[in-house]
Design a protein that fits this description.
The protein is mostly beta strands. About 5% of the residues lie in helices and about 40% in strands. It is built from two helices and 15 strands. The protein is elongated. The N terminus is likely disordered.
Length: about 250
């Protein structure tokens, strides 16, 4: 697995985990990739129900968690198989199936991860064994969205004091299975992948980010954590960004 810098290991892994299962055989030279996403806390990863808030650490409740994803890409396991001639027409011959091959993979997708399990992508892809899923987290460009100019937005409370975290970073995230022999297999079937953000691993005083250290220096009653906040939490905002990048993984369901 190729990790970005050091932390989202968000947005995450396992704060970010990918779970796969196969179904709906079609018998063609192509199959389907279905992607959905959800947020969980440790021990509740099987739940698909929306909740108004999640207790993610001692004294920490999360009520809102939104993320902006773009430009998904599947990387072929070239050691497992060569691309079939009849599938080459969908590829630009760079060894990856991405937004340059099929525009519907490009996004963007602004996901409300407190709304339960969200299906956001269902596309036709050539049969093959894919070793990695890559996606980009980037700023939202919709001026009418509360996510405008943000890539991640999280709200909640720390010891009953409201907090808001946002960042405008851009990161390319590549995730793989812990077992390198396991691939995402498309063989005339529908492969369903769930991007699972485990908030317990993000905001955990042991190994995660301790929000108890966040401050409200301007005394306005809200702890602001961002690259530009006036509460003295800029370094903490960067640490949360880094943690989100480092906790992403793929697991077989």
């Amino acid at each position: 697995m190729k990790l970005l810098n050091q932390i989202i290991a968000l947005v995450v892994l396992s704060a970010f985990t990918l779970i796969s299962c196969s179904k709906d055989e079609t018998g063609s030279d192509f199959g389907k990739l279905a992607l959905s996403a959800k947020s969980t806390t440790t021990g509740t990863s099987s739940s698909k129900q929306a909740t108004s808030s999640k207790s993610v650490a001692e004294g920490v409740e999360v009520t809102d968690f939104m993320i902006n994803l773009v430009e998904f890409e599947l990387e072929l396991d070239v050691e497992e198989q060569e691309m079939e001639n009849d599938s080459n027409e969908l590829w630009d011959d760079d060894g990856a199936f991405d937004f340059e091959d099929e525009i519907e993979l490009e996004g963007p997708f602004t996901l409300d991860l407190m709304a339960g399990q969200i299906s956001f992508l269902n596309v036709t892809v050539p049969n093959g064994s894919y070793e990695e899923l890559e996606f980009k987290i980037n700023k939202n460009k919709d001026e009418n969205s509360e996510m405008f100019d943000k890539s991640v937005l999280i709200r909640g409370t720390v010891n009953d004091v409201p907090f808001i975290y946002w960042h405008n970073f851009m990161d390319e995230v590549e995730v793989d299975f812990e077992d390198p022999t396991i691939d995402v297999a498309i063989a005339g079937n529908t492969e369903s992948l769930v991007v699972d953000f485990d908030l317990s691993l993000l905001f955990n005083a042991v190994g995660g980010i301790d929000l108890g250290q966040a401050t409200d220096n301007n005394n306005d009653g809200t702890i602001e954590i961002s690259p530009t906040d006036e509460d003295g939490n800029n370094d903490l905002a960067q640490s949360i960004r880094n943690r989100m990048r480092d906790i992403i993984d793929l697991i077989d369901d």
